[in-house]
Write a structure and sequence with these properties.
Elements (H helix, E strand, L loop, with lengths): L1 E6 L3 H12 L4 E5 L22 H14 L3 E4 L2 E7 L31 E6 L4 E9 L3 E4 L14 E2 L2 H4 L8 E4 L4 H9 L6 E4 L7 H8 L4 E3 L3 E7 L2 E7 L4 E3 L2 E4 L2 E4 L11 E4 L4 E4 L12 E3 L10 H38 L1
Helix pairs in contact: 1-2, 1-6
Length: 344
């Protein structure tokens, strides 16, 4: 049996894995190999790793985690559910095993709380004392021709990640909801040449006044397509046939947290502001409404960049370790008291 099951091998999940591995915990990381930033070739505002390829960072992270005995296996989580008592496993009487994860629950396992059973896309079923949801999120992009294929290149979402590289250039903002108007104000810091494409969304008068006060242009009407060569966008065509030349465009995707696997647990959720959607709710330590399930990274906070996700993962790894330590002391104290009563 594992001490911790980590669902997701991105910046948050691997950071938690390193913390738990260094604490001597038995850890399994399930890595689908599809981090949110896989479309970008460089990452920024990550101290000591400025300009590093995200793929390279994760490769280093996996090597570091394995140094402390962490097991990393491919696949994604199908279901995570609670089971009770040592010896619990798959519904057919015991956990199925595969070449990657062969640690079964034994009769000698600690019964210090509910156990968690994870079923994976590779057909494995494993059990752990705690679980971390670090599965990230999926960006659902507006269905505009020419947009998806340029995502992470000239179609962008985070100015702290990409703003410096397009500073002072002609920048567009494709509105997908209320957050788009906030995004437009933010983008104005990197360039004085900003055009907001309302894309069928009504622009409130007070918002329009605010944007125009700093020279932001507003183009009403639906965006039909993005034009350009290869990964570079050069213009936006709107429904009235007009072309607006731009060098890059920012947009806010529809955010879809990758948390469906946790449905059997019925975790409490919270609505994020500006219509960003419903996400699993956590406390200050990253613990969810289930006593043995934590969450970290973009699966609960879409605003976190790589550095913040790494920090969150490390913090949650420590919280999981402390929770297990507390349970172990509670159990030991109870067993000692029972022995003393038996000897009395």
């Amino acid at each position: 049996m594992y001490d911790a099951l980590i669902l997701g091998g991105g910046a948050a999940g691997l950071s938690a894995a390193v913390a738990l591995g260094r604490a001597g915990r038995r850890v399994l990381v399930l890595d689908a190999g599809s981090p949110r930033n896989r479309f970008a070739s460089h990452m920024h505002t990550v101290l000591g790793h400025e300009g590093t390829d995200p793929v390279e960072l994760l490769a280093r992270g996996r090597a570091e985690a394995r140094r402390y005995g962490v097991e990393i296996v491919p696949g994604w989580a199908v279901t995570l559910r609670e089971v009770r008592g040592a010896g619990s496993g798959a519904d057919d009487g015991g956990p199925r095993r595969d070449e990657h994860a062969e640690r079964a629950v034994t009769d000698g396992a600690l019964e210090d709380g509910p156990l968690l059973e994870l079923s994976t896309s590779e057909g494995a079923v494993v059990v752990g004392r705690a679980a971390l949801l670090a599965t990230g999120l999926t960006d659902r992009l507006p269905e505009v021709p020419g947009l998806a294929e340029r995502w992470g290149r000239s179609v962008l979402h985070c100015p702290y990640c990409h703003g410096w590289e397009v500073r002072g250039r002609r920048l567009g903002v494709l509105v997908t909801g209320p957050v788009g108007f906030h995004q437009a104000q933010l983008i104005r810091q990197w360039s004085e040449f900003v055009t907001v494409f309302a894309h069928g969304h009504e622009v409130p008068d007070d918002v329009a006044r605010r944007l125009r006060s700093r020279g932001v242009e507003i183009v009403p009407g639906e965006v039909l397509e993005l034009l350009g060569e290869g990964p570079d966008v050069t213009a936006v065509r709107t429904a009235d046939g007009a072309l607006t030349e731009i060098d890059a465009i920012f947009t806010a995707s529809t955010l879809e947290p990758n948390d469906a696997c946790c449905a059997p647990l019925g975790l409490e959720r919270a609505e994020l502001p500006m219509g960003m959607g419903s996400f699993v709710a956590v406390d200050a330590t990253g613990r969810t409404s289930h006593e043995r399930v934590w969450a970290a990274g973009n699966v609960i906070n879409p605003a976190l960049g790589v550095a913040a996700s790494m920090g969150a993962g490390t913090q949650v790894g420590g919280a999981i370790n402390m929770a297990l330590i507390t349970a172990e002391f509670d159990r030991a104290e109870l067993e000692r008291a029972e022995l003393e009563r038996a000897d009395a």
